[in-house]
Design a protein that fits this description.
2 domains, single chain, about 0% strand, coiled coil, mainly alpha, rod-shaped, nucleus, mRNA binding
Length: about 210
């Protein structure tokens, strides 16, 4: 009874039931033979005893044949279950390997994230506008998160530097133009000095002539 309580598979329950019936039938055959021998003594069995024994043997053979059929089915079923178990184990092994790979990739990514978080990025060294000053200039970024606010500050710094660079280039062009103008004036003054010296040289005889007349 305790054994039957642990067996829930219908096919195995049928095997136990037929096995129990075969055992009982074998005991019945033994009882019939023992009773017939006790009645007949050393003589042959009577017709009634032989008929009863034949009937019990047929029932026993029927149960044994049924039991053999169930045993064969159970054998095939066990082979099938063994194959299914091997396939399921293989799937579990594959999934376990995939899980280990995911764990390895997770640890790798966590290490990369940690390295990125601890890396001294160049943007952290940029002389950006203080946050308060930047928000005073562009209050629309007041609700941005840390990353969005940093990107906005960097973009603002870039636009400011580009504007300053444009002003520097414009001032440099004006400087070059002023230098060129000054050089032209110096050249003009130098030419004027030469012309004046020539004029003086030409005017010297006239000046001497006037001096004699006077």
């Amino acid at each position: 009874m305790a054994l039957d309580a642990h067996i829930t598979d219908p096919s195995l329950a049928s095997v136990l039931e037929i096995s129990r019936a075969a055992c009982e039938q074998a005991s019945a055959v033994i009882d019939v033979v023992a009773q017939a021998n006790a009645t007949a003594g050393s003589g042959p069995l009577g017709a009634s005893a032989q008929t009863d024994l034949s009937k019990q043997l047929k029932l026993l053979n029927t149960n044994l044949a049924h039991l053999r059929g169930l045993h064969r089915s159970a054998h095939f079923r066990a082979r099938e279950i063994k194959t299914q178990t091997a396939e399921a184990r293989h799937k579990v092994d594959v999934l376990h390997l995939q899980l280990q790979n995911l764990y390895y990739e997770q640890r790798h990514l966590e290490g990369e994230i940690s390295a990125c978080e601890s890396f001294d990025h160049t943007y952290q060294l940029l002389p950006l506008f203080p946050v308060e000053d930047f928000l005073a200039l562009q209050p629309e970024h007041a609700d941005d998160d840390e990353n969005e606010l940093m990107i906005a500050r960097i973009n603002h710094e870039r636009s400011e530097r580009e504007a300053l660079e444009s002003q520097r280039l414009e001032l440099q062009k004006r400087k070059q133009k002023l230098i060129a103008d000054n050089k032209k004036r110096r050249d003009d003054l130098a030419n004027l000095d030469k012309d004046l010296e020539k004029f003086i040289d030409v005017a010297k005889p006239i000046q001497k002539l006037f001096e004699k007349v006077v």
